[in-house]
Design brief:
Blueprint (H helix, E strand, L loop, with lengths): L15 E8 L8 E9 L2 E7 L9 E11 L1 E6 L13 H4 L2 H17 L2 E6 L7 H10 L7 E4 L35 H14 L4 E4 L18 H13 L4 E5 L2 H10 L3 E4 L5 H10 L2 E3 L4 H11 L4 H23 L21 H7 L4 H7 L2 H7 L16 E5 L14 E4 L2 E4 L4
Parallel strand pairs: 1-4, 5-6, 6-7, 8-9, 9-10, 10-11
Antiparallel strand pairs: 1-2, 2-3, 4-12, 12-13, 13-14
The protein binds zinc ion.
């Protein structure tokens, strides 16, 4: 079987029989031994026991491997690269084309690490994420299936705005402030514009950010009626809303306003956990990247304010993760990459297991559960018939050693091979 190595290619056109030594299908509570996943014209046709070789179909022999559905990262910023966090003013001068080239590289690294699905929940330069998504879907770029927000919906000088101390507001180009609004009516308009422009997800910055100037991570930024205005637009168009919220109050505001998932949820309190459970709201808690920020951010001399706010949120968030999971709240895999380099997304799995998930729960958080909270469980997140033929494989057993997922040897997407073991 050929590995896709150049563009263009015909996306989702692959037909192949994949023989798996062990199979985790994304939904069953147990793995199965020796099974064949038959993918025809980009979609899973069937899963058969044993090692099958259907007539005329290429076979990939992964009898020494564990197969899983392609992984999903619910919280990425593929257009951004992590080491730029030390100077956000780069976004004032960069062109869309330059940002697009960075985005394509991030998308490739993310896919080859085994993440065949991703939510791009915000890009500073408007619509770079949409253009990337469309290029991938057309076979003109290599990357995961994406939902994109287009731009951040945020208050002036809020966590998604690029007002930076020492820079005049007149320096900021309009393309990085497309989603800045105040009051429900303005947010409604900006949300409608995002949908009209091609967003298939809306993203609100409900409370202050760790990696932004001014503001306190726990502090409310958007008011409940502003969040609700965005939710109403999204739901009228059949798409979902992800709310960035660290603070306990903003988490509750966002849940009650109808947001579908909460990102970070660092300072969630017991009432927030109860509400998330009651409303079926998913939490995407980026519980690994605090370690990266603390070590690399210090070494690279990121702004002292960012490092301090990271310390204030990391352990609290991990404790909230344990409590929320124990209470039965849906926690979906979300890493906030580009806080650390794209392609290292799987480093979060071990922290999730240390903090209370079984390995199977952690895997489902990045497969079927994530797909359900994207509204895409009829497309991805499991190896059931009808879903896209998005399949990865690792040596060894990730249920015994979750760190195996950091070394993905095989990536198929839509039945096409993007990575195979070296012969
Ligand atoms: Zn983020």
């Amino acid at each position: 079987m050929q590995v896709v190595s150049a563009v263009p290619y015909q996306a989702d056109s692959g037909s192949v029989a994949v023989q798996c030594g062990k199979l985790i299908d994304g939904v069953a509570a147990q793995a199965q031994d020796l099974a064949t996943v038959i993918i025809r014209n980009g979609r899973v046709e069937s899963v058969q026991p044993g090692a099958m070789s259907p007539n005329g179909m290429p076979v990939v022999d992964l009898k020494q491997y564990t197969c899983l559905p392609g992984l999903i990262d619910m919280h990425t910023h593929l257009t951004d690269s992590g080491h730029e966090t030390s100077d956000l003013s780069v976004y004032y001068k960069r062109t869309k084309a330059e940002q697009g080239a960075i985005a394509r590289e991030s998308a490739r690294s993310t896919l080859l690490a085994g993440f065949t699905g991703a939510r791009d929940v915000g890009t500073y330069i408007a619509w770079v994420d949409r253009d990337l998504r469309d290029a991938i879907n057309q076979g003109n770029a290599v990357g995961p299936r994406m939902q994109v927000a287009g731009y951040y919906l945020t208050i002036p000088a809020g966590g998604g705005d690029l007002v930076i101390p020492g820079h005049a507001e007149s320096e900021i180009p309009p393309q990085v402030r497309m989603g800045v609004a105040r009051g429900p009516e303005q947010f409604r308009q900006k949300a409608e514009q995002a949908v009209a422009g091609g967003a298939d997800l809306l993203k609100v910055i409900a409370s202050g950010a760790v990696l932004a100037f001014g503001g306190v991570p726990g502090e409310r930024e958007m008011m409940p009626e502003e969040i609700k205005a965005v939710v109403d637009v999204a739901h009228a168009h059949g798409i979902k809303v992800a709310a960035h919220a660290h603070g306990a109050q903003s988490i509750k505001d966002a849940i009650l306003a109808g947001a579908d998932t909460i990102e970070h949820a660092s300072l969630i309190d017991d009432e927030g956990i109860r509400l998330a459970q009651e409303h079926g709201t998913g939490l995407s808690m980026d519980v690994y990247n605090g370690d990266w920020i603390d070590t690399v951010g210090r070494a690279e001399k990121w702004p002292e304010e960012f490092l301090r706010k990271n310390v204030e949120t990391t352990e609290a968030q991990r404790q909230g993760f344990t409590k929320a999971h124990a209470a039965g709240v849906d926690i979906v895999y979300g890493t906030d990459a580009a806080v650390y380099p794209h392609g290292l997304n799987a480093r979060q799995f071990p922290i999730m297991v240390q903090r209370g998930m079984t390995p199977m729960e952690a895997i489902q958080s990045a497969t079927s559960l994530a797909a359900r909270h994207m509204g895409w469980d009829d497309r991805i997140g499991s190896l059931q018939p009808g879903r896209f033929g998005d399949l990865i494989a690792v040596k060894g057993d990730p249920l015994a050693d979750i760190t195996r997922l950091q070394d993905v040897a095989v990536v198929l997407k839509g039945g096409l091979a993007f990575k195979l073991p070296a012969e």
